C-alpha cells in the first residue's frame, strides 16, 4: 500500500512563478486596505473595485507557468498517494499535473453566485458588474474573504489525519485556520518544512530544508522517491 504524503503549500510556492504574494514588501495588496478588497464589507461597499482587483490577479495568473516545485510534487505521485492542501488560489499545482488538490481559500479561475455559494462556475475571463448567475444574481470571485468561513477546512482535516509524511512548503504557518492543520497529523510522523527563512527550529521528527521551494522541493522529492 502506498504511503500517504500530505503537502501544505502557501504563497512561497507560487511566488517563484511570478505570482505576487500577500505579505511581500512589494506585495500586490500594498496600497490597498485588505478589508476594502477582500471582505464582505468591502464587496458591499464597492463591488466594481473588488472585481477589478481579482480581474487583475486572474489576468496575471494566465500569463505564468508552474515552477520546478510544482512539477516535483506532481512527480511524487508516481510512488506515493499525494494530497496537496493549498492556501493558494491559483491553479499551478493542477497545471503541473497534481491530481488531488484541496484549495482552502478558493480558486481564482472560478466564479460563484452571490445567491447560492454552492453555484460555482469555471471562469477565466474578467468578472464584470452585470455578469449574473442563472438566478440573476451578481457573480463574485470564488475566494474566501476575511471574515468568511473556510468551507474546505473539514475536508483538509480529514486528509491530514491520514498522513504518513507531512511536507510544509512556502508558508509561514501563521495564517489560521490553515496553521492549525498541523495539530491534526498523527504524532511522530516525519515533517519536512521547506522555507528559505525558516521561523522554527529543527527537532525530533521535524526536518528543516532552508531553501526556496524551487530548490528544496525537487531535492526532497528525489530523496523520498529513492527511499520508497
UniProtKB/TrEMBL annotation:
InterPro entries: DHS-like_NAD/FAD-binding_dom (IPR029035), NAD-dep_sirtuin_deacylases (IPR050134), Sirtuin (IPR003000), Sirtuin_cat_small_dom_sf (IPR026591), Sirtuin_class_III (IPR027546), Ssirtuin_cat_dom (IPR026590)
E.C. code: 2.3.1.286
MF terms in GO: histone deacetylase activity, NAD-dependent; NAD+ binding; protein-malonyllysine demalonylase activity; protein-succinyllysine desuccinylase activity
CDD domains on file: SIRT5_Af1_CobB (cd01412)
This protein's UniProt keywords: NAD, Transferase
Enzyme type, top EC level: transferase
Deacetylase sirtuin-type domain: residues covered: 1-227
NAD as UniProt keyword: yes
Name of the protein described by the UniProt record: protein acetyllysine N-acetyltransferase
UniProt organism field: Salegentibacter salarius
